[in-house]
From TrEMBL, chain A:
<feature type="binding site">
    <location>
        <position position="316"/>
    </location>
    <ligand>
        <name>Zn(2+)</name>
    </ligand>
</feature>
<comment type="function">
    <text>Catalytic subunit of the queuine tRNA-ribosyltransferase (TGT) that catalyzes the base-exchange of a guanine (G) residue with queuine (Q) at position 34 (anticodon wobble position) in tRNAs with GU(N) anticodons (tRNA-Asp, -Asn, -His and -Tyr), resulting in the hypermodified nucleoside queuosine (7-(((4,5-cis-dihydroxy-2-cyclopenten-1-yl)amino)methyl)-7-deazaguanosine). Catalysis occurs through a double-displacement mechanism. The nucleophile active site attacks the C1' of nucleotide 34 to detach the guanine base from the RNA, forming a covalent enzyme-RNA intermediate.</text>
</comment>
<keyword id="KW-0963">Cytoplasm</keyword>
<dbReference type="InterPro" id="IPR002616">
    <property type="entry name" value="tRNA_ribo_trans-like"/>
</dbReference>
<dbReference type="GO" id="GO:0006400">
    <property type="term" value="P:tRNA modification"/>
</dbReference>
<feature type="domain" description="tRNA-guanine(15) transglycosylase-like">
    <location>
        <begin position="20"/>
        <end position="373"/>
    </location>
</feature>
<dbReference type="GO" id="GO:0046872">
    <property type="term" value="F:metal ion binding"/>
</dbReference>
<feature type="active site" description="Proton acceptor">
    <location>
        <position position="99"/>
    </location>
</feature>
<feature type="binding site">
    <location>
        <position position="196"/>
    </location>
    <ligand>
        <name>substrate</name>
    </ligand>
</feature>
UniProtKB/TrEMBL annotation, chain B:
<feature type="binding site">
    <location>
        <position position="349"/>
    </location>
    <ligand>
        <name>Zn(2+)</name>
    </ligand>
</feature>
<feature type="binding site">
    <location>
        <position position="344"/>
    </location>
    <ligand>
        <name>Zn(2+)</name>
    </ligand>
</feature>
<protein>
    <recommendedName>
        <fullName>Queuine tRNA-ribosyltransferase accessory subunit 2</fullName>
    </recommendedName>
</protein>
<dbReference type="GO" id="GO:0006400">
    <property type="term" value="P:tRNA modification"/>
</dbReference>
<feature type="binding site">
    <location>
        <position position="375"/>
    </location>
    <ligand>
        <name>Zn(2+)</name>
    </ligand>
</feature>
<dbReference type="InterPro" id="IPR028592">
    <property type="entry name" value="QTRTD1"/>
</dbReference>
<keyword id="KW-0819">tRNA processing</keyword>
<dbReference type="InterPro" id="IPR050852">
    <property type="entry name" value="Queuine_tRNA-ribosyltrfase"/>
</dbReference>
<dbReference type="GO" id="GO:0005737">
    <property type="term" value="C:cytoplasm"/>
</dbReference>
Length: 420, 432
C-alpha cells in the first residue's frame, strides 16, 4: 500500500498564542484531516445517539469517539472484522478514536479487579469472568480500526491517594510497552499512551518523561475529570502540557464543559471528548454560551425564539424553544434535535478558539467568553488561577450590581452553570 | 337579511379538489389543493406525526429523505391527542402551524386521535369525547374542541365524532356513535359559523361513522350531506377500527362491502380521507372503491416494531415475489453486510447494512428506528408513486395481485422490543 509510507498520523502546529500555551494545529489521519483544538462527540456503541453520519458531516465534525468496551461486547470483534472495521460497520467515513475499554470497566462494573496481568471483570451479559489485558485491548482496537487508539491504563478513582496512585502510574507505563508490542497495525492506527499519576505533580512529571521515551504519535492525559477538585485538575493538565513535546497532539480525556474547554485549550490541550453534550440533550437541555437551557422549564413554554439566534444549526434554523419545550423528553425526535444543536455548539466553540489562536487574539477571546459565560456571577477562582498561570488575566468581577435588564424577555435565562 | 353575505364568506372552503381521472377498476386520480402553492396528487399519503414531528425524524432528516422523492410537498397529519399541550403556545404563535412544527410552507391536517396508537375504548358520553393524551384522559366538549382547533389553525381539520367502534361493536354502540356524532357536528358547525375569523383559513372534514352497519353509515352520511356543501371540504372515515396495529388486521371481506356502500352515497367532488394503518393490499382495495387520502401510520408501525418494509411493488422486478418485511431483530442479520433492501435508493440502504441495523436494535440505539423510519417512508412514498402511475393506466388490479402474492401484511407487535428507544422515563443513560 502506498499509504503505508505516510504515517497514519501527522500533526502540525499552525499557530500558537503569543501569550498562553494555546495552539491551533492540523492533524492528518487516514480518514480525515482534523483541525485542532477539537472536540470529539462520543458515539459509544457505533452511533452518536439519534444523529445520522450525514448530519455530523454537515456539522463539520471530523472525528468521533467510540468505546472499545461496548463495541467489543456488541457487535463484537468478529463482526467488526468481517465488516472491515468500525468505519464500514457504522457508515462513518471520517476519523475515529477509541478508548482502551479499561475506564468503562472500572466505572461501570462493580466487579472489576485489576492486577498486573490486566482487568478482571464479570460480563454483564452472561456473568462469565473475563480478563481485559493490554494485549486484548489492542486486539479489539485493531479490529475496530480507529485512526487513534488508547493504551490500556490502570485507572484509579481521581480521589484515590497513597501508594495505589503510584502503582497505577508505574503499571500504566509497563502496560504501554505491552500495548506497543501487541499493536498489530501501527501503519494504519496510532496508539496514544496515557499520562497518569493522580493529583501529584511529581508522579505526573515522571509519567510524562517515561512515556516520551516511547515511540508514539500523540499523548493522552487521563485520570482527571472524575470528581477531583478543579484546583487539582488544572494543575495536572498544566504540568502535563509543560512537559509534553510541542510537535505532538495532546488529548485530555473526558473533558467537555465549555469553561473547562476554554481553560484547557489555554493550557495547551488539543483534543477533548465528553458525553455530556449529547447526554444532556436527552434530558431536554440545550447548550448556549451562558450555560445551558433546561427546555423543560415552564418559562420556555411560550418562548418563540430559537435556542440561540446566532447558531446556524438545523435545529435553531427551524424550531422555537416553545416547540422544543413541548417535545423534549416526550418525543424521541427531541434527542436528535438537541443533540444536533449541542454538538454544533461544542464544535462552534472549538472553531472560535482555533480562529482566535490563528488571529493571535486568544486571550481576548477567553476574556469575552468568561464574561458572557459567567455573566454576573463571579468567575471561579480556579479559572482565574489557571488562566493566570498562562498569563491571561481576567478583569475583576463586575461590581456594577444594578445592570438594567432591558432585554429581559429576550435574553436567555440562566438555568444551570457549567462550572464546578 | 344581512346574515347572508356573512355566511357566504364564512363558509368559504379553502381546500380544492379536482378529479383528473376515474379509472374503471382502479379508483380515482385527483389534485388536492390545500392552500396556495400546495398542490398534491391523490391518492395521497399524509405524513403521520407525533407531537407535530414525523416519528423519529427531525425536519432536516425528513428533507434528506424527501430529496429522493418526486413530490416535494406533503400534508402533515397532526394529532390533537399528541399536541394538546401546545394549544396555549399556538394561541400566542403569530405564524402558521406548519412553521411551528418545523415545516414551513407545507400544509397541515389536524386529527383528534393518533392512527399510530390503539385508542382505548370507553369514556364517550352524550356531551364529550375522550382524548387520550400522554397525561391521561381528558373529556372534550365540542366547544372546547373547536376552541383548540382555533388555536391550532390547521389548514384542514376533522369534525368531532364518537369513533369508538370496530368490527365487533354492538348495534347499540354503533348507533350511539352516530347519534352523538350528529350532535357534536351540529355544535361544530355552529362554532364554525359563529367564529368566522378563527376558521376562515381552515377547512373542516365531515366525519362519517357507523361502524360496520349499512343503516348507521347511511344515517351518518345523510347528516353530513344535509349540511350546506360549503360548510365542509371533504369526508373522513372513522369508526372502522380503533387505530394502532388493529388496523393492520382488518379483514377485507368485512371492510370493503361497507366502504363500498358508503362511497356510493357520496358525491364525487369531495375528497375522502381514510386515516389508519391499513395494509398495502387493503389500501389498494380502498383506492379502487374511491378513497383518496391515506397516511403513513403503517410505515411507522412497521418501523416501531423493527420491521423494514420490503414488499415488492415494481412489476418489472426480479424476483417479483419478495418477503413483505425484513425483521431487524432476527439474529441471522448479525453479519449480513447488505442493504435492508437491495436496489433501494434510500439513505439507510445506501449507507448502512442489515448488520448495522441489527446492532442498533440490539443496543436499543435511537438511530435504529430513525433509519428504519427513513427506509419505510421512502418505500411507502415510492409505493404511492407507483399507485398513481398504475391507476392512470387502470392497472391497480395487477398491482394488487402482485402484492397479495407476497404474503401477510398484518403487523404483529414485536415483543422483543424492550422499551421505546431510549426515551421518556425509560432513559437508559448507560453511555460511557
Amino acid at each position: 500500500m502506498s499509504t503505508a509510507k505516510i504515517p497514519p498520523l501527522t500533526y502540525k502546529v499552525i499557530a500558537e498564542c503569543s501569550v498562553s500555551k494555546a495552539r491551533a494545529g492540523l492533524m492528518t489521519l487516514r480518514h480525515s484531516e482534523v483541525r485542532t483544538p477539537v472536540f470529539m462527540p462520543v458515539g459509544t456503541q457505533g452511533t452518536l445517539k439519534g444523529v445520522l453520519p450525514d448530519q455530523l458531516i454537515e456539522l463539520d465534525c471530523q472525528i468521533l469517539l467510540g468505546n472499545t468496551y461496548h463495541l467489543g461486547l456488541r457487535p463484537g470483534i468478529e463482526t467488526l472484522q468481517h465488516a472491515g472495521g468500525l468505519h464500514n460497520f457504522m457508515g462513518w467515513p471520517r476519523a475515529i478514536l477509541t478508548d482502551s475499554g479499561g475506564f468503562q470497566m472500572v466505572s461501570l462494573l462493580e466487579l472489576a479487579e485489576i492486577n498486573e496481568h490486566g482487568v478482571n471483570f464479570r460480563s454483564p451479559f452472561d456473568n462469565s469472568e473475563c480478563m481485559l489485558t493490554p494485549e486484548h485491548s489492542m486486539q479489539i482496537q485493531n479490529a475496530i480500526g480507529a485512526d487513534i487508539m488508547m493504551q490500556l491504563d490502570d485507572v484509579v478513582k481521581t480521589t484515590t491517594t497513597g501508594p495505589r496512585v503510584e502503582e497505577a502510574m508505574e503499571r500504566t507505563i509497563r502496560w504501554v510497552d505491552r500495548c506497543i508490542k501487541a499493536h498489530a497495525r501501527n501503519d494504519d492506527q496510532s496508539l496514544f499512551p496515557i499520562v497518569q499519576g493522580g493529583l501529584e505533580i511529581p508522579l505526573r512529571e515522571r509519567c510524562v518523561t517515561a512515556l516520551m521515551e516511547r515511540e508514539v504519535r500523540g499523548f493522552a492525559v487521563g485520570g482527571l475529570s472524575g470528581g477531583e477538585s478543579k484546583h487539582d485538575f488544572w494543575r495536572m493538565v498544566d504540568v502535563s502540557t509543560n512537559h509534553l513535546p510541542r510537535d505532538k497532539p495532546r488529548y485530555l480525556m473526558g473533558v467537555g464543559f465549555a469553561a473547562d474547554l476554554v481553560v484547557c485549550v489555554a493550557l495547551g490541550i488539543d483534543m477533548f471528548d465528553c458525553v455530556f453534550p449529547t447526554r444532556t440533550a436527552r434530558f431536554g437541555c440545550a447548550l448556549v454560551n451562558k450555560g445551558q437551557l433546561n427546555l423543560k422549564h415552564q418559562k420556555y413554554k411560550h418562548d418563540m425564539q430559537p435556542i440561540d439566534a446566532a447558531c446556524g444549526c438545523s435545529t435553531c434554523k427551524r424550531y422555537t424553544r416553545s416547540y422544543l419545550h413541548h417535545i423534549a423528553t416526550n418525543e424521541s425526535v427531541s434527542c436528535s434535535l438537541l443533540s444536533v444543536h449541542n454538538v454544533a455548539y461544542q464544535l462552534g466553540l472549538m472553531s472560535s478558539m482555533r480562529d482566535a489562536v490563528q488571529r493571535d487574539e486568544f486571550p481576548q477571546f477567553v476574556r469575552e467568553f468568561m464574561a458572557e459565560h459567567f455573566d454576573q456571577e463571579p468567575i471561579p477562582t480556579w479559572i482565574r488561577e489557571a488562566l493566570a498561570a498562562v498569563c491571561i488575566e481576567l478583569p475583576a468581577d463586575a461590581t456594577i450590581e444594578t445592570k438594567v435588564e432591558i432585554s429581559a424577555p429576550t435574553s436567555p435565562p440562566k438555568d444551570l452553570k457549567l462550572s464546578s | 337579511m344581512h346574515c347572508h353575505p356573512v355566511l357566504f364568506q364564512m363558509n368559504k372552503v379553502n381546500m380544492k379538489f379536482v378529479i383528473k381521472n376515474i379509472a374503471k377498476s382502479s379508483g380515482r386520480l385527483g389534485q388536492l389543493r390545500i392552500k396556495e402553492d400546495v398542490e398534491l396528487s391523490t391518492p395521497l399519503l399524509m405524513q403521520t406525526t407525533k407531537g407535530g414531528s414525523i416519528p423519529y425524524l427531525s425536519a432536516e432528516v425528513f428533507e434528506m429523505l424527501l430529496k429522493q422523492q418526486q413530490q416535494q410537498q406533503f400534508l402533515l397529519q397532526l394529532t390533537l391527542c399528541s399536541m394538546d399541550q401546545m394549544a396555549e403556545s399556538l394561541g400566542q404563535w403569530s405564524r402558521s402551524l406548519c412553521d411551528y412544527v418545523g415545516y414551513p410552507g407545507q400544509s397541515t391536517l389536524l386529527l383528534l386521535r393518533d392512527p399510530c396508537e390503539a385508542t382505548p375504548t370507553g369514556g364517550n358520553d352524550r356531551d364529550v369525547v375522550p382524548m387520550f393524551t400522554r397525561r391521561g384522559k381528558e373529556a372534550l366538549t365540542a366547544k372546547r374542541y373547536m376552541e383548540m382547533v382555533a388555536q391550532f389553525r390547521p389548514d384542514v381539520y376533522q369534525g368531532m365524532c364518537d369513533a369508538d367502534t370496530h368490527p365487533e361493536s354492538t348495534k347499540k354502540r354503533v348507533q350511539k356513535s352516530v347519534d352523538r356524532t350528529e350532535k357534536f357536528m351540529e355544535e361544530c358547525y355552529a362554532e364554525q359559523a359563529g367564529k368566522q375569523e378563527s376558521f376562515s383559513q381552515c377547512t373542516m372534514l365531515a366525519p362519517l361513522v357507523g361502524g360496520y352497519s349499512t343503516y348507521a353509515r347511511t344515517q351518518s352520511i345523510q347528516h353530513a350531506r344535509k349540511q350546506p356543501s360549503e360548510s365542509y371540504g371533504g369526508y373522513i372515515f372513522e369508526g372502522f377500527h380503533t387505530n394502532g396495529l388493529a388496523a393492520t388486521n382488518l379483514k377485507s371481506e368485512q371492510l370493503l362491502p361497507i366502504v363500498e356502500h358508503c362511497m356510493q352515497q357520496l358525491e364525487t367532488d369531495k375528497p375522502r380521507f381514510m386515516p389508519g394503518a391499513f395494509t398495502p393490499p387493503l389500501t389498494l382495495e380502498l383506492i379502487r372503491l374511491g378513497a383518496d387520502v391515506f397516511d403513513t401510520s403503517y410505515a411507522y408501525l412497521a418501523a416501531a416494531n423493527y420491521k423494514a418494509l420490503t414488499f415488492n411493488y415494481d412489476k418489472d422486478a426480479v424476483p417479483a415475489v419478495q418477503a413483505v418485511f425484513l425483521d431487524v431483530t432476527d439474529d441471522e442479520l448479525k453479519e449480513q453486510f447488505t442493504p435492508l433492501l437491495s436496489n433501494c435508493s434510500c439513505l439507510a440502504c445506501r449507507q448502512h447494512t442489515r448488520a448495522y441495523l441489527h446492532h442498533l436494535y440490539k443496543t436499543h440505539e435511537l438511530l435504529g428506528p430513525i433509519l428504519l423510519m427513513m427506509h419505510n417512508l421512502h418505500h411507502y412514498l415510492g409505493f404511492f408513486e407507483v399507485i398513481r402511475t398504475q391507476l392512470a393506466q387502470d392497472e391497480l388490479p395487477q398491482l394488487l395481485a402482485l402484492l397479495t402474492s407476497q404474503g401477510s401484511y398484518s403487523i404483529q407487535p414485536n415483543t422483543k422490543v424492550i422499551a421505546k428507544a431510549a426515551m421518556g422515563k425509560g432513559f437508559s443513560s448507560n453511555a460511557a
